[in-house]
Amino acid sequence: MRSSVLAALIAFGIGACGVACAQADVVEDFYKGKTITVVTSTGVGGPFDLTARALARHMPRFMPGRPTMIVRNMPGGGHVLATNFMYTQADKDGTTIATVNNSVPLHQVLDGRGVRYDARKFNWLGSTGTSNLMTVAWHTSGFKTMDDVMARELVIGATGVGSGTFIYPNAMNVVLGSKFKIVMGYKSTAELDLALERGEVAARSGASLAGILQERPAWIKGNRVIVLNQIGDVRDPAFPQVPLMHELAKTPEQRAILNLISLPPALGRPFFTTPDTPADRVAALRRAFEATMKDEAFLNEAKQLNLEMNPFGGARAAAIVNETVNVSPELIAKAKAVLDSPK
Fold first, then answer.
1. CATH assignment of the domain containing 218
2. pTM of the entire predicted model
């Protein structure tokens, strides 16, 4: 009896392995000799680009078939250009992944200009972590707090309507009555940062604290910028005295709208692949991403690059995206009513 049970268990194990191993072999065979392109919606430099490049160096070790990975920068349109590319043009076979600004799902429901994607249909791999976004003024601007921005005009730069560089100051103008004068047209946040240093603009928004510390550490350490507010769930411990954007609200309706607009930072620096990618390849990409996030060599490189890491997986990333896009129609209507017209 025991021998027959043992034989049955062995046969079951072999059969199960046969299916699983066959699936693994199919994925390995597909990726062997292939190149995976990592699209980033930013220009060269900065936390999104540097994270993508570090990932491309280490993630192939955890992928079946050990494919090569390269990075393709695709800035433009406030991150909408790269997101549209992933939805409408990239091959839906698991050979293209992307990292885009976390404001992309919110832009889909609140603005929609240029949108040819549904963020819910992407296959989310995970995120390297979160960091509050900051609205900063140059130290010579004469602006010290948001009270100053409520009283007089502050020139602030932006890359495009889908970017936090535009969304947050425009929201504060419409909801709170602040006096940000938004100058559009910068091709990347790196170009915008240079414009701030050159005095073309006096402020910028949507900059993560991690990004500032990585790209422009002197801004903080040298007191070259004044942090006017931060966008996120809770105040960053480094700036406990600086208000969150939604804390500036005067009414419950204002707070609800600004809370909605503050959802993107929770998504951090996310990675995803195309809709309709075969499930076994999505699973392989997710496993490889999560393994890379725990890899000592990757984490050491991230530390050397001053990239903050507190990663989470694809299920949580997808849940945040769905929470953003599936927000109640009533709240969307209220938010759109005050945000449709730039101020």
1. 3.40.190.10
2. 0.72
